[in-house]
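Section 5.1 Outputs to date
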Amino acid sequence: MTGQQDRWAELTGGRAGEEYARRFASLVASGHDVHGEATFCAALLRPEARVLDAGCGTGRIAIRLAELGYHCTGVDVDSSMLAVARREAPGQEWLLGDLARLDTLGLKPDFDLVLAAGNVIPLLAPGTEAVVIRQLAAALQPGGLLVTGMGLDAAHLPLPEPPLTLADFDHWCTQAGLTLRQRYATWSGDPYQDGCGYAVSVHSRPAPMGRP
C-alpha cells in the first residue's frame, strides 16, 4: 500500500460494498441497463481477450465481460467491494491491491484491455494518479487499450470539486507512453465536446514497428 488514503476510502470508510451492490440491484430491478461499460469494451476486443478491471469494485463489469467470453481479472483496494465480487463470481480472479503498486501482484503484462471505470482515476489517493496510470499502461501488451471513464465536474463526481482536469489526465497518459485514440461523452458513444461533464477515453499502448 502507498500509505495514502484514497478519496474513495475517505468517502466510504472502506465499507460500501453491500450498499453499492444493493444500489445496482435496484437499478436492474427497475429495468435499467447497467452493462454500458461492458458493452463499450466488448466492441473493442477480440474474442477471448484478457481484461484487467482496475478498481473493479463489486465486479459488475468484469462479471459481465466474463459472461461474454473474455478472461477477466479484477483488482480493488476496497475489501468490502471485493467481498461482493467474490460472492457473485467465485470462479473469477479477484485481487486485493493498491493500483499504485500493481506490479507487486504478479500479473503478466499482457492484457488486451485495462479498464478504469466508475471514477477510479479521480478517486485515487492525491498525488498517485500519474503513478497509477504508469502501472496500468505497463500491464498492457503492445497494442493494448486503456479505457477510462471519469467525471469532470461536481455533477458527475461524489466530490465537491474535480481533483484533476482532462488535460492533467492526458498528460499523465502521454508520460506513460499512451496515445489517445478516441474520446466520448458517455459509455453509449455520444460525441465528446469541450465542457462535457464526463469523458470516456480510449488510449493505446503503441505496437512495435511492423506489427498491425
